[in-house]
UniProtKB/TrEMBL annotation, chain A:
This is Uncharacterized protein. The chain crosses the membrane at residues 30-48. Keywords: Membrane, Transmembrane, Transmembrane helix. It comes from Ammoniphilus resinae.
Length: 221, 247
């Protein structure tokens, strides 16, 4: 798009240089086309932009408080009491008669994994991924967050986190409006990087072994 | 007395309409300068921020008409200077007029040009958003702007642009009074810009920017700009009248 814009601009500059003072008729055309383009852009913009950013505004302290509550519930094995909005992934793996499940993470920093033993041996591992939230400059972009990838290969549950690049374009009111609304172009300063917690419900007798990148914690009864 | 007033109003009206047609070329430069600002803004926005961790890298580009508006200031400033030059002043001889009617029609022309410039500058922000949508092939997140905010935006932009028009008109008038000002004013401006804080102990331009740009009470801002605009136009009109006496 920029390339096209630059080409158009160069053409306009060449036009101005070559023809010098434009005739009145040409000026009318330039002005009319420009104004028509602006009007069309104004009509199309609401259809092509996400106007929900004001609904995304969050209070960092409130987010932290809510997440602490979620974390506390998870640590106590009260997964059913956690709001569904914190669940990024819900899946299960058939482990058959497996005696030992190895957990492996490719992350450098530790990955938090909570283990809850089921009362029975149903040969299934239920996996949940919870997220804290992706807060950028006081706005909640958690819907942009990609969850860790979980894969069961032989006896190993692999937790893979590939670096996610998120490019956001946020449009703000121009400064003559911001000057009187107190709004800042950067909007806010707090941020949270979308921490994720894995919660596994495993068969009662399944042994779990984790590599050193995993911060393993047994929860519940 | 009544007849004189009518004649003056008629003359100003005729001159204003004539100037709108005669100075139409200034609007093509408005289109050019605003498109230039939109293209510059589209490269990486008016502000960027970034953060990264092991799992995630976030790049945020902020887009707004912030660059288009100052470009419009430059256009208004140069347009106001242009209409004080001799070729443009010669248009006035088409009518039976005096310096006052000429000045009033010039001010009206600048006001009309400013209205157009202000509205297009704000709308150019939407053109920028549209360009971002096609360039990034993703949603552009945007806040909703209330009708009240839109009206404030248009009016405040108008006042800013009109302020630059008034300053431009005054500068153009001074230059017509004495060509020495065409050297003196840029020298004073750039000296103040680069060395103001060293020589005077304070930056005049920074103080000036704070005086208008950091005013958060709308009514006071309106008062400040309107008074400044009035002072510059009255001063310019007085100088033109003086020029008439000299000739």
């Amino acid at each position: 798009m920029s390339f096209i814009a630059i080409v158009l601009l160069i053409l306009i500059i060449i036009f101005f240089i070559k023809f010098g003072k434009t005739s009145r008729k040409v000026t009318h055309w330039i002005l009319s086309i420009y104004m028509a383009v602006l009007v069309v852009a104004t009509v199309l913009v609401p259809l092509m932009t996400d106007n929900t950013i004001n609904q995304k505004k969050v209070d960092q302290l409130e987010i932290d408080r809510l997440w602490n509550e979620v974390d506390k519930k998870l640590s106590q094995g009260q997964i059913d009491q956690v709001d569904a909005e914190y669940v990024l992934v819900e899946t299960n793996f058939d482990v058959g008669h497996l005696k030992t499940l190895k957990l492996q993470s490719n992350k450098v920093n530790s990955t938090r994994v909570l283990i809850e033993r089921k009362p029975s041996n149903d040969e299934k591992v239920d996996a949940f991924i919870f997220r804290k939230g992706l807060i950028i400059n006081d706005y909640d972009f958690s819907d942009q967050l990609k969850p860790y990838h979980l894969e069961l290969v032989d006896q190993t549950l692999r937790i893979t986190s590939s670096q996610q690049e998120i490019n956001l374009a946020i449009s703000s009111n121009p400064f003559p409006i911001r000057q009187f609304t107190g709004e800042s172009i950067m909007r806010g300063h707090s941020s949270a990087h979308g921490d994720q917690v894995i919660y596994l419900r495993i068969p009662h007798d399944l042994e779990v072994v984790a590599n050193e990148q995993i911060d393993l914690l047994s929860v519940g009864g | 007395m009544s007849l004189t007033n009518t004649n003056m109003a008629e003359t100003v009206k005729k001159q204003f309409c004539f100037k709108l047609k005669a100075n139409i070329d200034s609007f093509s430069s408005l289109v050019f300068i605003q498109l230039l600002a939109v293209v510059f803004s589209s490269f990486s926005g008016v502000a960027t921020s970034g953060m990264s961790s092991e799992d995630i890298q976030i790049n945020v580009n902020y887009y707004s008409a912030d660059l288009v508006i100052p470009f419009t200031f430059i256009w208004a400033f140069t347009t106001a200077i242009t209409i004080t030059t001799r070729p443009y002043r010669n248009h006035d001889f088409t009518f039976i007029s005096n310096r006052l009617s000429s000045s009033l029609s010039n001010i009206l022309f600048l006001a009309a040009a400013t209205i157009l410039g202000s509205i297009t500058a704000l709308l150019a922000g939407n053109l920028l958003k549209l360009m971002m949508y096609f360039r990034l092939e993703s949603l552009v997140f945007s806040g909703t702007t209330s009708l009240k905010e839109v009206l404030i935006g248009i009016f405040v932009t108008f006042l800013y642009v009109f302020l630059f028009s008034a300053v431009g008109y005054f500068v153009g008038t001074l230059v017509q009074l004495n060509k020495l000002f065409s050297v003196l004013i840029p020298v004073l401006f750039f000296s103040s810009l680069f060395f103001g804080s060293f020589i005077l102990g304070f930056s005049f331009l920074t103080d000036l920017f704070q005086f208008y740009g950091e005013e958060t009470v709308l009514s006071i801002f309106i008062m400040k700009t309107l008074v400044t605009v009035a002072v510059f136009f009255i001063a310019s009109t007085s100088i033109w009248n003086q020029l008439e006496v000299r000739r």
